Structure to design on (275 residues):
């Protein structure tokens, strides 16, 4: 049976490979991203090999709260039931800067934007027979610390990688807290590390180190594998609130498992989400 799948950041990198694989399996896929020209090109590319793919796109700017709200309303009219929600959109920005919302860009998009989106569309996932939410986190969460002041003051981060690590740590904390809050429902929520993947997220890094690093990285196809498995495999349905690497439950930092910190971050995110 075809499932309804929504993928944020589904027009490039591992998100594109998720979309390609799931559309190829017959699922109805909606890729959402800010750049619609890029999304249309991604759809055209997928349809070269899967001409009958049921795949569409909608514009979404996760850095703009008003746009998230507008998107959610349009989405629910178009797709009132979501079987699989993949929160994958990511970015690495240099220099560090703020969004119009006032948040540092990486935490603003990857955590606060995704949090607000989930708040607005969760009922569509609850409508599914067995909803699955999959979150792209990263091994880089181990470099992150939750520093509330840095959410709106990028200068508190000495290096960009620390801001990225904080955002990915927030993704993992959010995964586990959402899973706790949805325990006993038909929804599971899990996160994964895709591996060091050769994608456009590294375009802000210096050219020589970038070229050297990319030569040793995984392909986007391999990076997407665990997400696809979490989204589709019958045996993955039993997991909730876990963090995976290469389809196996992996260790994560104590901070990522801190229930008190998770509640604090949730409360802050909820306050931001009512603006």
């Amino acid at each position: 049976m075809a499932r309804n799948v929504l993928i944020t950041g589904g027009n490039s990198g591992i998100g594109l490979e998720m979309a390609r694989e799931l559309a190829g399996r017959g699922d109805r896929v909606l890729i959402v991203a800010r750049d619609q020209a890029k999304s249309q090109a991604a759809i055209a590319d997928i349809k070269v090999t899967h001409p009958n793919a049921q795949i569409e796109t909608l514009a979404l700017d996760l850095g703009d709260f008003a746009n998230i709200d507008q998107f959610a309303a349009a989405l629910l009219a178009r797709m009132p039931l979501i079987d699989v929600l993949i929160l994958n959109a990511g970015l690495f920005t240099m220099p560090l800067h703020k969004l119009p919302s006032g948040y540092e860009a990486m935490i603003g998009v990857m955590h606060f934007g995704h949090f607000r989106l989930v708040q607005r569309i969760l009922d569509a996932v609850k409508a599914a027979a067995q909803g699955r939410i999959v979150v792209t986190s990263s091994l880089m969460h181990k470099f992150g610390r939750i520093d509330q002041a840095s959410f709106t003051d990028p200068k508190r981060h000495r290096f960009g990688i620390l801001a990225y690590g904080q955002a990915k740590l927030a993704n993992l904390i959010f995964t586990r807290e959402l899973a706790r809050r949805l325990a006993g429902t038909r929804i599971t929520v899990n996160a994964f590390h895709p591996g060091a993947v050769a994608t456009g997220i590294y375009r802000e890094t210096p050219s020589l180190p970038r070229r050297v690093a990319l030569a040793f990285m995984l392909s986007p196809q391999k990076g997407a594998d665990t997400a696809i498995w979490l989204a589709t495999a019958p045996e993955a349905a039993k997991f909730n609130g876990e963090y995976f690497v290469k389809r196996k439950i992996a260790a994560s930092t104590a901070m990522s498992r801190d229930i008190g910190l998770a509640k604090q971050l949730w409360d802050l995110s909820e306050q931001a989400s009512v603006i």
Notes: The chain has a mean pLDDT of 92.
